Amino acid sequence: MKQQYVFGLSALLAIVGLSMFAYKWQFLGFPVKEDQETPVWTIESSIAFDSGPGSIKVNLHIPTLTPGFRMLNENSVSRGYGFSVNYGTGGREAQWAIRRADGPQTIYYRISIYEDARSDQSDTTPPFPPPPVINEPFRTAIDVIVAEVREQSADTGSFTSELLRRMNDASPGPNVELLLSNVGTSADFVGSLTTILASARIPARMIHGFELQGRLRNAEPMTWLEVHDGDRWRYFDPSTGDENLPDRFFIWWRGNEPLISVEGGSNVQVSFAVQENHLDAVAIAETQVAQQGTNLIDFSLYSLPIQTQAVYSVLLMIPIGALVMVVLRNMIGIDAFGTFMPVLIALAFRETRLLWGVILFTMLVALGLSIRFLLERLRLLLVPRLSAVLIVVVGLMLLISLVSHRLGMETGLSVALFPMVIIAMTIERMSVVWEERGATDAIRAGIGSLVVAVTAYMFMGLGWLEHLIFTFPELLLVVLALVLLAGRYTGYRLLELSRFKTLAGS
Amino acid sequence: MLASHQQLREAGVLGLNERNCDFIMRLNPRRLYPRVDNKAITKELAIAAGMAVPELYGIIANQREVRNFANIVAELDSFAIKPAQGSGGDGILVVTGRSKRKRDSFRLSSGVLISEAEIAHHLSNIVSGQYSLSGNPDKALIEYCVRFDPVFSEVSYQGVPDIRVIVYRGYPAMAMVRLPTRASDGKANLHQGAVGAGICMSSGETLAGVLDNDVVDDHPDTGALVSGLLIPHWDFILQSAARGYDVTELGYLGVDMVIDKHHGPLILEMNARPGLNIQIANCTGLATRIARIDEIFKSDAGAVERARVARREFPAERQTSIEF
Questions:
Q1: What does each of the 324 residues of chain B score in pLDDT, given as a tens digit?
Q2: Which residue in chain B has the smallest CA separation from A490?
Q3: Which of A75, A130, A357, B317 could hold A352 in an S-S bridge, CB 3.0 to 4.6 Å?
Q4: What is the mean pLDDT of each run of 10 residues along chain A (506 residues)?
Q5: CATH topology for the A36-123+212-219+251-293 domain
Q6: What is the ipTM of this complex?
Q7: Is residue A322 a contact partner of residue A343, using CB atoms and an 8 Å limit?
Q8: For chain B, give me the number of helices (H) and strands (E)?
Q9: 3-state SS, residue B260
């Protein structure tokens, strides 16, 4: 009956722990590996213009929906301008306004983004566009092209591809030539494409953005074609007709409208600079969680002050040490002093390093034990006796530190990091065992404690494990589940297989 | 060399985890522990039940009563002083006689003479809790000093040979005799180097001995054959052990007895967490016997009946190396 309770409870704990872990890992993007970094791009647009006599109003299109990317943060730098963000037809627009300004002006808008393949923010399904009003002779030319392309295509996708093929043909037909006659830039080209597509009642628009790679001083926005096929938006390369989007294409704004409009200014220059950085994946995951408004982040240890974090990253390893302890004692059968003494000793080893830790610990216990035997003759009561041992341990620590400092061995100073109360208790326990069960047992248990401490230290020192537990503290539930299961382990301990070997095979 | 998990299971060996989890935690509720951990309570219960224990001359419960010591022992030449909650034999003083010239100085078992004032000091140390592991104030028991029956004198080196019986739900399940050696320093603890010899539950005859988990035929110090000793009063020993359950209500109990020259078997102490070495001494697994007891368990069986059942059910299953 109890067995079932324990199994049930362990399963529950493990499931809760693992599912929280999986959620944070898979959906919130918390990194499983240590020092995992994510590239972050900072794109800065600087707007320079000469101020006119009156009030100035600057409207800049800024990124709204960015498939494949998520925004980390954005900010604007300007001198004395009022700043607001509005939603226009083409998405978000940043607006700077000032009553009056003198001389050349520069305004900066900066956005930091990181790649996230799961960010699939696409626009809603648009209505069918109204047939555009076009003058002759373009009207006829477009009608002819649309009719011909429609003949040779099956759906929106193939229609667009076919149209683009014709428009990019090295020896275009007369109708195409007419349409391209007043096309200058690639934006104009894509603009006329959207007009043709609108005549075919296909929702299409221009998208402008950047192909992010490393550092770019003067990035020119590229224009791409976006076509809605009734289900989703599809991207076409306007110069080849291939349906694709360049790798790491970051969409800055959509639509036919110009990037910027400046009222009351002249000589407008907009330039973009792209900078690639690497940020800790944890930081990004957290920002993201904060943006999503999940209050899970409130329970993340990364929200604690840095120093407290350092403490907890150590404290959270204690359960791992306890698990090691459980396995070594209940499954292997190693004899050790105290329940958690070895785990605390292992914590001290973190500071002293292993070799010195073992040497100093052995030295302290051996010295303390011999002094404890001297105290034994005085026949003291328990509490005064323990206190005396404690004082002696402190004194010994002091002595070891001073002597090693004199000898120029700084490692000896770290002896002070040993939990002295624990050492005092160890000495006391060891001397009691020594008296009751003899030296062999006491020394064996002492060595056992050291073995457990060293093993626990090895596990507690695993960098990836520390990171994992600190980032996903819910994994402690899994540790708890394992400990509960071990609590109902009634099989033989490994050392019992040797102890009872004479009984086997009857 | 290791035995496999499977082999031990088949041999019915009881492991530590199983003992703790399935028997001690289930059958020995913590509130009953004082009945065995505190010798004063054990004694009181045992006397009330009319069991054979070393006669209690007096209890010194606090500092004020220390001065009663002289009165308690006024008529006595030999006695033993024990802390009620001591462990491992710490704080025990065995007085074997008095000085011929001065009646207020006592001779200890080691031969040393000690004054009454020194004994009073020792008593006050006991009462203040020096020998109790928890450090709490304790009581001192003054009781009959056991004179050992010579049955084990050939196979023990000084010290106190005793008989340990494991009692499962009131039924004696397994027994062994623990023989001190020079290495064990007169103590009857197997892990200190004492020789343990299993006992055939049916006949009360000792089997081969075990020293440090290995089978031995003779005592390492005296060289005498350990096996084949017939333990006197075997019936009574089993009955006393079985009654230990009635008194303590601990379902998994170790009863330690000694055989006195004049008074026969006496219960020295009882243990709520008896060790598992007894299996090695008997070359038999406890789990098998425990399972059998669960089968034949009758809640209304008296101690005599339970001891009889144990004699019937658990003869030594095999003789050990002597026969090979």
A1: 677 888 888 888 888 888 888 888 888 888 888 888 888 899 888 888 888 899 889 999 888 888 888 888 888 888 999 998 877 667 888 888 888 777 788 888 778 888 888 888 889 888 888 777 666 788 999 999 888 888 888 888 777 788 999 999 999 999 999 888 887 766 777 777 788 899 999 988 888 888 877 788 888 888 888 888 889 899 999 999 999 999 999 999 999 999 998 999 999 889 888 888 888 888 888 998 999 999 988 888 888 899 998 888 888 765 444 333
A2: B18
A3: A357
A4: 83 92 81 74 87 86 83 83 84 87 86 77 69 78 83 84 81 76 76 82 85 79 84 83 82 84 86 80 71 59 71 85 91 84 84 82 87 78 79 85 77 66 81 76 88 91 85 90 89 85 70
A5: Immunoglobulin-like (2.60.40)
A6: 0.73
A7: yes
A8: 11, 13
A9: strand
Distance from CA of B322 to the nearest CA of A (A): 14
CATH architecture of the domain with residue range B7-36+149-316: 2-Layer Sandwich (3.30)
Distance CA B90, CA B126 (A): 10
pLDDT in tens, A250-289: 888 888 788 888 888 888 888 888 887 777 777 777 776 6
A500 vs B1: CB contact, 8 Å cut-off?
no
* Annotated domain spans of chain B: 7-36+149-316, 55-143
Closest Cα of chain A to B280: distance in Å?
7
- Nearest-CB residue to B2 (from A382, A491, A501): A501
- Cβ of A330 and B17 within 8 Å? yes
Domain boundaries, chain A: 36-123+212-219+251-293, 138-211+220-250, 318-460
Which of A382, A498, A505 lies nearest to residue B129, judging by beta carbons?
A: A382
- Å from A439 to nearest chain B CA? 9
Contacts of A487 in chain B (CB under 8 A): 21
Burial of A490 (0-12, 13-18, 19+ CB in 10 A): middle
H helices of A200-303, where?
281-292
Interface of B with A in 245-274 (CB under 8 A): none
Q: Using omega within 30 degrees of 0 as the cis cutoff, is the peptide bond preceding A130 cis?
A: no
Residue B54, chain A, CB below 8 Å: the answer is: no
Question: Does the domain spanning B55-143 belong to CATH 3.30.1490?
Answer: yes
Q: How many CB contacts within 8 angstroms connect chain A with chain B?
A: 108
A383, A492, A499 ranked by CB distance to B213: nearest: A499
Q: Which of A330, A381, A498 sits opposite B2 (nearest CB)?
A: A498
Q: Whole-prediction pTM value?
A: 0.67
The tokens 């203040």 sit on which residue? B128
How far B239 CA sits from the closest chain A CA (Å)? 28
Instruction: Report the gap between the CA of A376 and the closest CA in chain B (Å).
Output: 11
